[in-house]
Amino acid sequence: MALIDVYNVKGEKILERDIRDEIFNVSIREDIVHQVAKGQLASSRSGIASTKNRSKVKASGRKLWRQKGTGRARVGAASSPLRRGGGVAFGPIPRDYSFKTNKKARKAALRMALADKFKAGHLIVVDNFELEDIKTKKFFEILKNFDLDSVLIVTEKPDENLEKSCRNIRKVKLLRAEGLNVYDILTHEYLLFVEPALGIVEEALAK
User: Fold this and answer.
1) How many CA atoms lie within 13 A of 137 on its CB side?
2) Model pTM greater than 0.85?
3) pLDDT tens figures, 67-84
4) Is residue 23 a contact partner of residue 114, using CB atoms and an 8 Å limit?
């Protein structure tokens, strides 16, 4: 097993811990990581664009004027797409953009994303990250101790003080261990684990 340093919130190394090679020391396949990240983005698309076709427009079905003898063009119902207020021809309808990515591939991509951060030296583990009260200034001081700007923080339990202290900070995101995903790892430069959360992720990905 490989070793990783564990720090306190002051940025001081306090111990080392083992991390699993089958998670943090795997070979990286960009195609799998790309497929899973693309699937995650596709699933987040709302797909709610919608228009009414001629059958959904509220209008009389009566023929507007007789077919012949008026000198005007032939017309049918008022809901025709050719008329103002009529239905839209071939307009967008609500759709589901998501596509299925199998569980094995999702787990593999998550391992690869974690391995990439570890190999780049952008994986940080702290023993504890609890704040006594809601203070963005105090949170900034902790980030400064590690010289962090863009960071994804992974915790093992809900923490209102921590959540509210960092929620308005650009390029900082807080996640529970259960919600860790490939896209968020890729879009943040650093990954910071509270040590118990790292154990939860290791246990989930080792299965």
Assistant:
1) 0
2) no
3) 999 999 998 899 999 999
4) yes
Tell me which fold the domain 2-45+99-205 belongs to. Ribosomal Protein L4; Chain: A; (3.40.1370)
- Which residues, including other chains, have CB under 8 Å from residue 44's CB and lie 6 or more apart? none
Half-sphere exposure (Cβ direction) of 103: Cα atoms closer than 13 Å = 3
Helical spans, DSSP H, in the chain: 21-24, 30-44, 103-119, 136-145, 160-166, 182-186, 195-205
Output the DSSP codes for 138-187: HHHHHHHHTT-SSEEEEESS--HHHHHHHTTSTTEEEEEGGG--HHHHHT
Question: Where are the CATH 3.40.1370.10 domain residues in the chain?
Answer: 2-45+99-205
183-203 pLDDT, tens digit each: 999 999 999 999 999 999 999
Tokens found for residue 178:
């259960």
